[in-house]
Amino acid sequence: MTKLHIVLTASCLGVFIGCNPPVSDPKDYAKFRAESPKSILVVPVINRTVDVTAPDYFLATISRPIAERGYYVFPVNLVKRVLEDDGLADSNLVHQANPKRLGELFGVDTILYITIHKWDAKYAVLSTSVEVEFTYSLKSGKTGEELWKSKEAMTYVPQNRSSGNPLADLISMAITAGMTKAAPNYIPLAQQANGHAVLRLHQGLPAGPYHVEYGKDQTSF
């Protein structure tokens, strides 16, 4: 493992610990368990940021954690194409549509609605912070009721190691900040946020029917 890898790993660990305060009260899973969903449809996300590429990049990160939790996830690109053919090309229109309509159209148990609130890189000469923030809402494709929701925010600030030379350190910090601003990498933060939303104890999704823990996590979720 290289020194750079160690530094980046330590930085990412700080992101995990610092961005989501502990939540003491477990979610109420009564409606979720009553539905006992097997499949999840991820519809196009609403983008509240100025980055027009954010929705496509984000959608590339969401299917895997849900599938690994034991649910069938409809292919996001296919879903987008079908919705466009059905006159729902705009994500705002999709989110405003009756969930039961989407449930009937795709034959799916639940629909996951996501909004991107932050997808930003804030530059401050010697430091650039990369921030993402999302809200998630899972609704029944049969009744339209909300079964689960979550909100996640992540921040990454590149760490600079001291060389013992103050001037060299300042130059290094400025270069690192400029590089981060020029090409911020949002994907790891989006992946971490999705992992938190789906997997966090008492807050994430209970194990689905295609997971080995299905039906065994009643006491923990």
How would you describe this protein?
This protein has about 220 residues and is an alpha/beta fold. The protein has a single domain, classed as 3-Layer(aba) Sandwich (Rossmann fold). It has eight helices and six strands; from the N terminus they run H-H-E-E-H-E-H-H-H-E-E-E-H-H. Strands 1, 2, 3, 4, 5 and 6 form a six-stranded mixed beta sheet that branches. A hairpin with a 5-residue loop joins strand 5 and strand 6. About 30% of the residues are buried.
Main attributes of the structure:
221 residues; alpha/beta; Rossmann fold; six-stranded mixed beta sheet
Class from secondary-structure proportions: alpha/beta
Q: Let me know the CATH homologous superfamily.
A: ABC-type transport auxiliary lipoprotein component
Secondary structure tally: strands:
6
Work out the helix count: 8
What Rg do the Cα atoms give? 20 Å
Please give the largest β-sheet: 6 strands, mixed
Short note summarizing the structure:
The chain has helices at 3-19, 30-35, 54-68, 76-85, 91-96, 99-106, 166-182, 187-199; strands spanning 39-42, 46-47, 72-73, 110-123, 128-140, 146-156.
